[in-house]
Design brief:
With 221 residues, this protein is of the alpha+beta class. It has a single domain, classed as archaeoglobus fulgidus dsm 4304 superfamily (archaeoglobus fulgidus dsm 4304 fold, 2-Layer Sandwich), CATH 3.30.2170. The chain has helices spanning 11-22, 83-101, 123-131, 186-195, 205-220; strands spanning 2-4, 7-9, 37-46, 49-58, 63-73, 107-111, 135-139, 146-149, 155-159, 162-169, 175-182. A hairpin with a 5-residue loop joins strand 8 (146-149) and strand 9 (155-159).
Length: 221
Amino acid sequence: MLITGGRYFDYEAAKQLQLQLSKLVRIDPVKPDSIEIIVATDNGYKGSKVIGVAVAYNAKKRKELCHIAIVDEVEIPYIPGLLAFREAPLMIEAIKELSLRCVEADIIMVNGHGLSHPRRFGIASHVGIALDKPSIGIAKRLLYGSITTDNNLRTAITVGGAVVGYVLENVYGGKVFVSVGHKVKPEDALIIVDMVWNRSNPLPDPLYIADNLTKKMRLKI
């Protein structure tokens, strides 16, 4: 147990909650060509402050529509496997505010992992369950799982023998690890990410915009 900012954070209770919530994750088919609005969310830090950003991106027109940024105090330290308890609340708040002020998401892209997680409940699953929205996890490093090749010779991420995501590369050889968050199949997540990624950027375009916004916001704090 950790005491931070006058609050208690119980590691074991958090892990048990993830195990319970992981049972709610659904792997449903999504028609990639029906996806129009992708909302990407990312967090950045400066000192004791955390910046939560949500960006609405039109996948058909390949352009940003609007964004919102929220600043708050950091209260929980970084704990591998428990990132959602530190970052998800602000991401969820930013996405909700964006939907009120601008547009509702068809699917959410989260800077983090989904089912490629020790308890099959990374931050992308956490956000997807909380908002009852399809969600995809995008990360630059593998947190959990094995790298294999599927029947179509694609580089896949497996957990417990099941494919939960895929690995893609940009033109410079940099990798992103794409995993199911909630209400999406691995194959559909792969197609959706591929259709909005200029491979000269290190991240899919919606998340690349969100990442740049957190960097700009850090300079203003």
